[in-house]
Amino acid sequence: MSVHTSASATPTHTPRAGELGAPHYRRLFGLPREVAFHWATFLLTVVLVLAPVLPILYQSIRNQALYTAGGAFTLGNYTALFTEAGFGGIVLDTLFFAVLTTVFALVIAVPMAILLQRTQFPGARLIAPVLRWPIYISPLVLAFGWIVIYGPAGLMTGTIRDVFGAVPWNLYSLPGMAFVEAVAQVPLAYMFCANALASSDTSLENAARIVGARPLRVLRSVVLPMLRPPILYAGLLIFGTAVETLSIPLVLGERAGFTMFSSFLYTEGINSVNPDYGMLGAASTLILVATVSLVALQARLLKHAQRFVSVRGKASRSHLLDLGRWKWAGFAFVGIYIFFGALLPVLALILRSFTSMLTPLVSPFDLLTFKNFELIFQYAPYTESITNSIIVAFVGAVATVLLGGAAVVVARRSRFRLGRKLESAAQAPHALPGLVIGIGFFWAFAWAPGGHLVQGTLLALVIAFSVRALPAAYGAISPAVLQVGSELDDAARTVGADWWRTVSRVLARLALPAMLASFVLIWTSMIREYAPAMFLAGADSQVIGTTALDLWTQGETGPVAALATLQIAVTALVAGLAGLLLKGKSNA
Description:
By secondary structure, the chain is mainly α. The chain is 69% helix and 1% strand.
C-alpha cells in the first residue's frame, strides 16, 4: 500500500523547451513550419503554372490588348482566326507534319531498341550510349546541321547530284521537315522502348523458342506486343512535341512556304508590325487545348498498361536471340542512322564553323578560318547570349530542382490535404508549349503591377524556363523519394523530429544524388531552350537560340555554325563532368 501511495504521489513533469524531451520548433506566421512550407509550395506552384495560362485565355476573348484601357469581350478572334488568317490550312499542315514525324521516329527507334536489347547485336554495349547522346543536341542545331549537309547547297547533296545527276530527297518539304524532326526525337522513343525491354522478363520469349518459334517470329509475336505501352507513350509525346516545335518549321518550313502552329505564333506575334493580340490569344488557346487533350488521351490510353507487364517476382535467365546473317542488316540499319542521321550533320556543322564555306568542289582544309568565332567573340551581344544561356540554365536548374523537390515531398511524403492537386499542378506544364509559355508570361508581366521590372530581363527567362522544366524535375526526383522507406520517417518522428527536420535531415540527403542528376538533366535542356525567349528576351537578355535564329535570317551561316559548336561544346563538357561526379550513384 505504501508503495502505491508513493507512486501516486509522484508529480508528473512535462519537459520545457530546451530541456530533454520534445524539441521546440519555430512557428511561421503562427503556423507550424511544415504547414507554412506546404502552403507556400502549393501556392507558388499554382501561381507559376496559371500565370501564363490565364492571360492567354483572357486575351483570346478581348478585342484589344489586355494591358490597354477599354476593350470589350468578343468571340470574333476565333472567327477571324479561321476566316482571315487561314488557320484551317495551318492546322492540317501541322497535323500531317506531326503524324509523319511520329511514324518516322517510331519506325527508326523501335527496331533499334529491339535489336540492341533482345538480340546478339555486335557492339551493343558501345552503341547503346551513343544512341542517347543526340538528346543533348538542340533540334535547332540539328536542323542547321542537316541544311549544311543535306540542303539544296549542302555538301552531301552536291556530291550525290554530281555523281547521279539528281538527289532523292527534298529537305524543304513536309516529309523532309518531318524526317529531320524525327531524327531529333528518335533518342526519346528509343529510351522508352529500351528501358522497358531491359526491365522485362524473358520467360515468354523462352517459352516461344521452346515450342519452335524462330527468332523473327519471337520478336514479332512476343517482344513487339509487350512494347505497346512505351510505343504509345513515346508516340503521343513525340506527336505533341512535333505540334509545338518551332525550330524545324521556322528554319525549313518558312523557306518552303509551310506555316505550322508555332511559326504562325512567331510570325503573328514577333515579326508582325501591328500584331493582332486577340487572334494571337485565340491561336494560343487552341494550341493549348490541343496539347492538354493529348496529355489527357495519353493518360487514358495507358490506364490499362498493366496488361502488358512482364516484370514478375521470379525472373528467368535472359537468352539473346541470334538473327544469324540478318544481324548485319540490323547493324547496317543502326549504323546508317547514327552516321548519316545524327553524327554527320553535327560534324558538318562543326566543320562549317571552322571554314569560310563548305562545298564538295574545294577541300575544306583549304578554307580553314577562325573568323566565324572571331565574329562571335568580338561582337558583345553574341558573346552575351552565351553567358546569358549559361546563367539562365544554372539559376533556372537550381530553382527548378528545389521547387520540384519541394513539390515531391509535400505531395508524396506529407499529410497535406491538397497534395494530389499539387502533384497535378507540378506536372501540368508538360502540356504547355514553349511559345505559349513565352506569350503567356509576356502578357502576365505586362498586365501585373510591377511586371515591367521583370519583362525583358534574365529573371523573366529563368521563370519561364523553370515552369517549362518543372515536370521533368518532378518526374526525376519522385522515384528516388518513393524508394526511401517510410519507416525512416517514423524513426525520426520517434526521437522528436517534426516533418521539416525529417525531410531536411533524412529524406533530402538520401534523394541528393537524384536531385543532382535532375539538375544535369534540366541544365542540358535549358541551355538549348529558346522558345519562351522569343517573346520574353530583351536586347540584353538574348540566349544562344534566339541569337542563332537572328544570324540565320541574316544569312550568316558561318557564325551560326560557330555559335552552335560552342553550345555543343559547353553541353558536352557539363554532361561529361556530371557523368564523372554521378558515377557509381545508382539512385541518380
